[in-house]
Design brief:
This protein is of the alpha/beta class and 581 residues long. It has 22 helices and twelve strands. Helices cover 46% and strands 10% of the residues.
């Protein structure tokens, strides 16, 4: 059996620690720190289950448990961004991969012949028509003609097609796009990935958008090309640090501290590649196509659905309503969320000039029609904000972020685009841009000029060339190694991230309690321990929540779900035991 090291407990405020003895904190700040503590303890419970499994006999089950623990840590921030507690077990399995995956199946893998160009293999979990990581790979492949690019998709769902434009970009580059059978075992996928890398790559680029254990297992050997990890979700826990030879950040704000917290031996930064679409369609034609009046003031915001969910004092819809009430000629269009999708999380009615248009594959038509771009909050969007600024839209960034990593920050424009200190300043900036078209034009022009320099065409390729200078020195120097055990860090940024995860990844049980307090702590504790699989503790927290407020039906439903989940778990364990016998 593999043995996990002892996990040290972090130092939480005295008021927070009282929660462990049954007395819950009454202040919002203390409650938020408890959210982080509960997340960390649930993660440790999941990590502890891994040490009871035999690495030789139960490798596949161990890897599944590692992925579950990593998904939990990504969804509910635990004060960690990488952790040897779980990752080193995957590294050990990867060292025995040839034996563990022997005879498990064959898959024809295309080979890319060695020539004068650098062979780059991009690896990611899956791709979709909508998504910043897919666009980043597409622009990287399309713009970098000095290299031959291939893409391997570890877990592309059978019912979600690979975008044709991505496939064509890879083919034009001279590489191959490979999708692994999604239902195959994790060890087998890792073996295929290792084979593909050895025969078709001089450099592997991991685009980590989801805690995927397969690359860690695949590259747990020195006999592989060097591996760089693109830190596309720098606010989330990730796997892969033990096999990454370099961490590439997409913004300089957190590049050095994140390299340390992700246990990376070296780091570099590169801007997000963009494509200039200004002039593809006129403002008048875009508005005619969308049915928008030519004289409206059009405010625009673009982001995934969860980025608009209220959290504590942050409420995008309520702030939007205040702006629209004060500016009768303005309309706000939100691309990426629908009215039905946000409905369970609403604290107020949606203004009749606030339009949630749902998911749109290409928002360029809305950007062409817009006058001002508003960043979503409490969770912003780096790519969406940069794409808006590139077409010359003036931008109002998110205000007073819970954590700097939750909002956009780009070195090219950070000095002229600072975050408002509070909601009042956010509203004031929007109103100033509405009233002063000259100010809109000046800010939009300045933002566009900055981004053209570093994010587009030759400017971006020069930044990529600088990164390649570092990675070329790594050729034949891949160095997988165990990483340190991480304890829960309770910094303000970590507490802010854990607070965000309450609304970002919880469900409507939590909607009415997101500002903190005793009921919020109890509900959140029940939710996360239930997600982790510690059903007895989840039931206890849910029952205490009922005692605190017996008139809330959602809490009773939560309690019943913990009962049903626990019973289901017992039945599944019994069936599994019978099958083994």
């Amino acid at each position: 059996m593999s043995t996990l090291p002892h996990i040290n407990k972090p130092d939480f405020p005295e008021e927070v620690l009282e929660a462990r003895t049954g007395t819950l904190p009454h202040t919002e700040a203390a409650a938020q720190a408890v959210f982080l503590q509960v997340n960390s303890e649930s993660y440790e419970w999941l990590a502890g289950k891994i040490q009871t499994l035999d690495r030789q006999k139960e490798a596949e089950e161990i890897l599944c448990c590692i992925e579950k623990a990593a998904r939990f840590a990504a969804m509910y921030h635990t004060g960690r961004f990488a952790d040897g507690t779980i990752e080193n077990a995957a590294l050990e399995i990867g060292a025995d991969l040839d034996k563990l995956a022997a005879g498990t199946g064959d898959l024809w893998l295309p080979a890319v012949s060695k020539d004068d160009r650098r062979r780059v293999l991009h690896v990611t979990f899956n791709v979709r028509e909508v998504g910043g990581h897919t666009r980043l790979m597409y622009h990287w492949v399309r713009n970098d003609q000095s290299s031959c690019h291939s893409i391997l998709l570890v877990n592309q769902p059978e019912d979600i097609p690979v975008p044709l434009w991505l496939f064509e970009a890879v083919r034009s580059s001279g590489g191959h796009l490979v999708t692994l059978p999604p239902k195959s075992g994790l060890c087998q996928k890792a073996k295929w990935l290792r084979t593909m890398a050895k025969q078709s790559a001089d450099l592997v680029v991991l685009h980590t958008i989801w805690p995927d254990v397969v690359p860690t297992v695949a590259f747990a050997t020195h006999d592989c090309p060097p591996v760089v990890v693109v830190d596309q979700c720098d606010h989330m826990f990730e796997l892969g640090s033990s096999v990454g030879d370099m961490l590439i950040s997409l913004r300089t704000l957190e590049s050095v501290p994140m390299a340390k917290r992700r246990c990376s031996p070296r780091n570099a930064a590169i801007p997000i590649p963009l494509v200039d679409t200004l002039g593809n369609m006129s403002r008048r034609d875009a508005r005619r196509t969308l049915g928008i009046d030519e004289h409206q003031i059009v405010l625009l915001s673009v982001g995934r659905d969860l980025k608009y969910r209220p959290c504590g004092p942050y409420d995008f819809v309520a702030t939007a309503n205040r702006i629209l009430n004060r500016q009768p000629g303005a309309h706000l269009y939100v691309v990426g969320e629908s009215a039905a999708g946000i409905a369970p999380y609403l604290r107020c009615a949606i203004h009749d000039r606030l339009h949630f248009v749902g998911s749109v594959e290409d928002p360029s038509l809305y950007r062409a029609a817009a006058d001002i771009y508003l960043e979503s909050f409490p969770f912003g969007s780096q790519t969406a904000l940069l794409e808006a600024a590139l077409v010359g839209l003036p931008v109002v960034p998110a205000y007073a972020p819970l954590c700097p990593m939750l909002v956009a920050h780009d070195e090219a424009i950070s000095d002229i685009l600072t975050n408002p200190q509070d909601e009042r300043e956010y509203v004031k900036r929007v109103e100033l841009l509405i009233r002063q078209p000259e100010e809109r034009a000046m800010l939009g022009k300045a933002l566009r000029e900055r981004l053209l320099t570093g994010h587009v065409g030759e400017g971006w390729l020069n930044r990529l060339a600088a990164v390649y200078q570092h990675t070329d020195r790594l050729m034949q120097a891949h160095d997988p190694r165990p990483i340190p055990v991480s304890i829960c860090a309770n910094t303000d940024a970590d507490i802010g991230l854990s607070h965000w995860s309450l609304m970002g990844h919880s469900n409507i049980y939590f909607t009415a309690t997101s500002e903190g307090g005793e009921e919020a702590v109890l509900v959140h504790s029940s939710l996360v321990t239930k997600w982790a699989g510690d059903f007895s503790k989840a039931r206890r927290f849910a029952w205490r929540a009922i005692q605190h407020n017996p008139y809330r039906w959602a809490v009773w439903r939560l309690f019943l779900s913990t009962m049903l989940s626990g019973a289901r778990s017992i039945i599944l364990k019994a069936v599994s035991h019978i099958k083994k016998e």
